Amino acid sequence: MFTKKMIKLLILLAIGTFTFISCDDDDDEHSHDEQEAVGLNLTVSDTIAVTQDADGNVSGHLMTHENSATTVYLKFIDKDGETFIPHLDDGFSAHYEVGDTNIAIVHDVSGGTSHNHGDTTSTSHWEFHVQGKAAGMTTLKVRILHEDHTNFTSEFINIHVHEASTSGGTPSKMILKNHSGAELATTNADSTTGMVMAELNTMTHIFVSFLDSDGNMTMPDTTNRFVEAEAADGSIATIMNAGNDSAPWEFMVNGVAEGMTTIKLKLVFLHEGLHRVEEIVGTPIQVHVHTP
Questions:
Q1: b/e burial code for range 212-242 (CB count within 10 A of at least 16 → b)
Q2: Cα(first)–Cα(last) distance of the chain, in Å?
Q3: Are strands 192-199 and 285-290 parallel, antiparallel or unpaired?
Q4: Domains detected in the chain
Q5: Burial of 272 by CB count in 10 Å (0-12 exposed, 13-18 middle, 19+ buried)?
Q6: What SS3 class is residue 213?
Q7: Which residues pair with 226 in a beta bridge?
Q8: The dihedral of CA 76, 102, 113, 46: what is its sign?
Q9: Average pLDDT by consecutive 10-residue portion of the chain (292 residues)?
Q10: Distances from the Cα of 154 to the Cαs of 32, 39, 139, 216, 251, in angstroms?
Q11: Separation between Cα atoms, residue 18 and residue 70, nearest integer Å
């Protein structure tokens, strides 16, 4: 049988335990809130292209071409030198300001959200595209917004836009590459080579470049043009097309279930912005969805 003294002791122990846990939780929350950006890294094709350190010194620049888009992955640096992304659930988002939008524009393809190739439970980076409009140089500023105020503003980051290559002719073949630039497959109206490997429950980013009939690299005019992919079996893989409003030469393959299917890739032109013309229709490309 419990005595009054024992009951009081148990109550005191329970209160002490609750207080310890609550304080511990508060410490975790406080530590999370204290992670503030003092710098950033911008990564292109697995290489850090731009770094801003804690003193505001910027090294490197972003580069793209006319009528082309470059994918950039963004992480911030805290006072301890650790990279991180603010938690979106806490009301954070990224904002991009380009000095001269006649030279380049920026598309936030993450939709103002974190992006981790299909993993919605964690965050690896924010992602945006720099699209070249005309040859020249302009600047970019990156901000962290928290609800109605700015938490961090980068220094000016240079963007160099180079002239589009004019050595190639009319596109006749499409080349599929991964985010590192490795060739995965080619396709045109007559044949296909290679295969796309996609991991289960993961978004695989595909970039498309073009060859003319002589085998020279070429780049279509982005005005009302974009590539469009379609999966034959949506129970194995689905497609997220970027479309002509963001990154016209890119799409993503989402691995839904292990197995094999095919995708068909098209180069689409909207004549006068309305009438659809399929300029290249590739033969089906095999897609293998597998467990990592």
A1: eeeeeebbbebebbbbbbebebeebbbbebb
A2: 58
A3: parallel
A4: 39-162 (2.60.40.1080), 171-290 (2.60.40.1080)
A5: exposed
A6: coil
A7: 268
A8: negative
A9: 54 48 39 73 88 93 83 91 82 90 85 38 67 89 88 94 68 87 91 96 89 83 86 96 72 95 94 83 96 90
A10: 21, 7, 11, 39, 29
A11: 52
Helices (H), the chain: 4-33
> Pick from 208, 207, 263: which is nearest to 238 by CA?
263
d(CA 227, CA 79): 42
Q: Which residues contact 134 (CB under 8 A, 6 or more apart)?
A: 66, 102, 103, 161
Whole-angstrom distance, CA of residue 200 vs CA of residue 290: 6
Determine contact, residues 103/113, Cβ cutoff 8 Å. Answer: no
Q: Contact 95/143 with Cβ under 8 angstroms?
A: yes
Burial class of 27 by CB neighbour count within 10 A (0 to 12, 13 to 18, 19+): exposed
